[in-house]
Amino acid sequence: MSAVVEATDLEKRYGETVALSGASLAVDAGEVFGLIGPNGAGKTTLVRALTGTTEPDSGAARVLGEAPTAIDRDRLGVLPQAFSPPDRLSARELLAYYAGLYDDPRDPDAVLADVGLADDGDTWYEDLSGGQQRRVCVGSALVNDPDVLFLDEPTTGIDPAGRRTVWRLIEDLAAGGTTVLLTTHDMAEAERLADRVGLLTDGSLVAQGTPDALVAEHGGSSRLTVETAADLEAFDDLEHPVERVERGRRGTPDGAVVVREIEPAEIAAVVDSLEARDIEYTGLSWAEPDLEDVYLALADRTELERTDRVGGSDGGDESADDLAQAGETA
């Protein structure tokens, strides 16, 4: 089966700034491909190269077997990261406007229902909440019933219930054969929606695979977090690696103790050990590795290096994506 979306060794520079550095991927028909990575990694530039709004310096991009600029636009749906439709149109009028750009569009009211705004069609865009506005924007990418859908951070600013509405919609579209490439900073979103995930850092895809495969390879071990001020020596009798968390992440308090490579059945032994030593603790939590652990393992080092550069700027690739978003090089 030939890929529906293909990028081969894409390179893109904006002056001295490298946006893409040999990025390659392939997405099959009906597949949802999630693109993750730090701010400024080149995700928006890659999406623009694949949709024909940015011309790469070298390499090749193909969608539906053609160059992005040669595709029948009725077959393509695109939601940019930054999208500001006219404020003084209602949600229904906006979707009707975008529907009018295509030969065989969907009914705007049906699209409103799909994005959970069936009761808000007459509300001016400027009077909608930020999350509702974003859902209208998602709808604008669907009015032509595209075969291939590009979504650049589709659920930014949408509340949890609305986010799940959009997730179900994307799942239904993929089940119906639509090919979807989406970018996101929400690891739960990527883990739920994506058949495969690609991690982009510094303009290159450094890892690709199913969420489960990436977690198995890069996610590390299960862990028990113990919120305690006790010294690490208090855990010396445990047959598990133990470390102090100096910089808390994902809700883990600074200074907590993490016991690695531990299964749920072994937690009682840790508790018994703490109580036998009269060690006080304020909380226990056990977790298996997930896609966020993969992201942190592969991208966090790059992010730290970027912020530690001279002048404290992480601007290299972020500036590149800002230029791409502004359409500096079409």
TrEMBL record:
InterPro entries: AAA+_ATPase, ABC_transporter-like_ATP-bd, ABC_transporter-like_CS, ABC_transporter_ATP-binding, P-loop_NTPase
A Pfam family this chain is assigned to: ABC_tran
Secretion signal, residue range per the UniProt entry: none
Keyword Cytoplasm tagged: no
Top-level lineage group: Archaea
UniProt domain ABC transporter: residue ranges: 5-227
SMART domains associated with the record: AAA
Region described as Disordered: 305-330
Keywords: ATP-binding, Nucleotide-binding, Transport
Protein name, per record: ABC transporter
Lineage: Archaea, Methanobacteriati, Methanobacteriota, Stenosarchaea group, Halobacteria
